[in-house]
Structure formats: C-alpha cells, structure tokens
C-alpha cells in the first residue's frame, strides 16, 4: 500500500499522511494518531531516505574523538566511554543515528572531510587535542559543530567543558591546606584542558610561595606508571601529586604502592574527572569532578540549536572537589 492509498482510507490528503507519519505538529494529535494506527495496520512505512533528501537531512550526528597529540589513546578510556555513552543516549533519544569515529589527523583537512561528507547533520568533537587551529578554521564556515574542551575568550568554535583552571586550583588548595609543600603535576601539559589544569595547580602553589614540579608524560597508563616509577627511584617523593586525569592518578597510585610509599600519609594523590573507578581504588581516589551528564546535555542541546539555525554560545561546567582517602 502506498501513501496515496492510505490517504484515501484516512480521508485526508497524501501530504497530510506524510506529515502525520513524520510526527509533524501541523497535523492535530487525533488525526495524527488515527493515520499512524492505519499505517501500522497496513504496514505502510515512509521512505526515510527520500524524506531525508527532501528535508536536506541525514538523520545522523558525527561523534568524533580526534587524537592529534595522543595517538595511543583509546575509546576504552573510562572518561571517554562515559562521555560518549551519555552523548549517544541523548542523540538516540532525539531520533538520530550516530557515526562514531576515532580520528588520527593525517593533515589539516581531516575535519573538512568530515563536515563535507554529506553523511551528518552536525558534529560533536570530544576533545581539541592539538587540533585547535583546524577546529577554529572550520567553525567559521560550519555552524553545527560543538566541542568538549577548553574555552578561550577569543575563540569562534563552540565549546562545552569544565573550568579546568578552577579545578587545578581546587586540587592545589586541597594539598596546601593539608600542609603539603613538595607538589607535582603528572601528565601531558600540551592539550588545552590539561594545560589549564596544570596552570591552576601551579598558580595555587605560587600563591602559597611553593614550587610545582612537572612530571611530563604521555597519558597512557603504562607511560604514566613508567615515568612515575623512574621519578620515585631517583629522588625523594613529592608529598602532593595532582594528576591530569583519574586514569593517570591510578597509575601514580600503583607506582607509589610498588615503591612502598604510603598514600596519603607520605604522599597525597588527586585526580581529575571522577570516573566510576575512582571510588574503588585503594585508597579511594580524591578527585576533581566535572559533571559529564550536565556537559553532555549542554553539548547536545547547543548542537540541536545550531542545526535549527539558532545562534548559541559556549558554556562552562563548574568543577567540584570530591574528597576521598587519597588526599
């Protein structure tokens, strides 16, 4: 049965049938329900591809993790899994398909290829990596682009993310309030979010008249553990460690345990993110929580507004200190 046949049964025009099956509000609820019931009874289904072409819509959203600075990073990282899961659920609830990609940039046109592919209605980027210039350039010509990442006052691209400088300050002040004086930041300070966390932590230390040692390392668990173990073997341990992420903090905890350094008596450790595993380490990890549920909701909401042609800007999520046993 075709839509025209269904229109005769329903006593309405074919256009009304089409709008009713699409759930359009221009058809009153009673008529819409009657047409949808008839369509189900007679197994009439609108051609989704034709509808998408007519509406100039693909019905899909790109969900992309760009890895310019950390090519060994995986989607299985607890932070990425959590945020990607939240975003995917919200997009599916709005009726969108998802095109999930882990992109290792091989040039300056990787983002152009994504937005010009004709396969998506909008794009969510999880992280800026070292691709800020590329993202900024493309954002000037492609509006439905939302990025989880650090905010800069002069940027054009729309970001959602936590106040990483404030989060770093929270970690620093927690250490200082406990009387810690040999402070260390562990992680890769190159990505904007990590750079801001380090800056906030170092600023808190400087305000207290303290130095902040930087243990620069790639962010894989193996690399952080190796760097931490090497550092602990070479000099007296710091008495306060702030890691750029919870996963990095967990690797630091492992290295400290292997070196028989007590946490938190000798060395306090604070992470960032508050992933689910953070509450189950030994000792349980004190961390800076960024509310990923709120962040994901903001990302999807702002993207929908951009797709609809509305102007909307960036938003910053307030970080919170989660006190546990490690610091």
Outline the structure in words.
- This protein has helices spanning 3-10, 14-21, 29-41, 48-55, 78-93, 110-115, 132-139, 164-177, 192-207, 221-234, 246-258, 292-307, and strands spanning 60-66, 97-103, 122-126, 145-148, 158-162, 183-187, 212-216, 240-243, 268-273, 286-289, 315-317, 320-322.
- It is α/β, with parallel strands linked by helices and 327 residues long.
- It folds into 3 domains: 3-46, no CATH class; 60-162 and 292-316, 3-Layer(aba) Sandwich (Rossmann fold), CATH 3.40.50.2300; 164-289, 3-Layer(aba) Sandwich (Rossmann fold).
- Strands 2-1-3-4-5-11 form a 6-stranded parallel β-sheet.
- Strand 1 (60-66), helix 5 (78-93) and strand 2 (97-103) form a beta-alpha-beta unit.
- Helix 8 packs parallel to helix 9 (192-207) and helix 10 crosses helix 11 (246-258).
- It is elongated.
- It comes from Sphingomonas aerolata.
- Residues 1-55 form the HTH lacI-type domain.
- GO terms for molecular function: DNA-binding transcription factor activity; transcription cis-regulatory region binding.
Stretches where pLDDT falls below 50 for ≥5 residues? none
Q: How are the strands of the biggest sheet laid out side by side?
A: 2-1-3-4-5-11
CATH topology of the largest domain: Rossmann fold
- For CATH, the homologous superfamily of the largest domain is named as Response regulator
* Biggest beta sheet summary: 6 strands, parallel
Q: How much strand content do the residues show?
A: 15-25%
**Structural class by sheet pairing and helices:** alpha/beta
**Helix amount:** 40-55%
Tell me the overall shape: elongated
The average pLDDT score comes to: 90
Alpha-carbon distance between the two ends: 68 Å
Number of strands: 12
Order of helices and strands: HHHHEHEHEHEEHEHEHEHEEHEE
- The count of domains is 3
**What is the alpha-carbon Rg in Å?**
25 Å
């Amino acid at each position: 049965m075709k839509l025209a046949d269904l229109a005769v049964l329903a006593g309405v025009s074919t256009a009304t049938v089409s709008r009713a099956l699409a759930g359009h509000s221009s058809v009153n609820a009673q008529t819409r329900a009657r047409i949808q019931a008839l369509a189900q009874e007679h197994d009439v289904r609108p051609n989704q591809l034709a509808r998408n072409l007519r509406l100039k819509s693909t019905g899909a959203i790109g969900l992309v993790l760009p890895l310019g600075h950390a090519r060994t990073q995986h989607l299985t990282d607890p932070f990425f899994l959590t945020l990607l899961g939240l975003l995917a659920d919200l997009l599916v609830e709005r009726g969108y398909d998802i095109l999930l990609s882990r992109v290792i940039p091989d040039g300056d046109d990787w983002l152009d290829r994504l937005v010009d592919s004709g396969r998506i209605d909008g794009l969510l980027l999880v992280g800026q990596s070292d691709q800020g210039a590329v993202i900024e350039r493309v954002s000037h010509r492609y509006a439905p682009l939302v990025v989880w990442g650090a905010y800069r006052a002069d940027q054009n691209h729309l970001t959602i993310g936590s106040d990483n400088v404030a989060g770093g300050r929270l970690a620093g002040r927690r250490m200082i309030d406990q009387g810690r004086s040999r402070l260390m930041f562990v992680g890769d300070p190159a990505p904007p979010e990590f750079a801001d966390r380090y800056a906030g932590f170092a600023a808190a230390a400087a305000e207290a008249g303290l130095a902040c040692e930087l243990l620069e390392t790639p962010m894989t668990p193996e690399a952080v553990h190796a760097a931490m173990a090497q550092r602990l073997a070479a000099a007296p341990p710091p008495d306060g460690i702030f890691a750029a992420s919870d996963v990095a903090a967990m690797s630091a905890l492992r290295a400290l345990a292997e070196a028989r350094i007590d946490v938190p008596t000798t060395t306090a450790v604070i992470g960032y993110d508050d992933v689910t595993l953070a509450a189950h380490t030994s000792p349980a990890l004190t961390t800076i929580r960024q509310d990923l549920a709120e962040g994901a909701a903001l990302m999807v909401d702002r993207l929908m507004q951009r797709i609809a042609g509305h102007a909307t800007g960036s938003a910053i999520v307030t970080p919170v200190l989660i006190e546990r046993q490690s610091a």
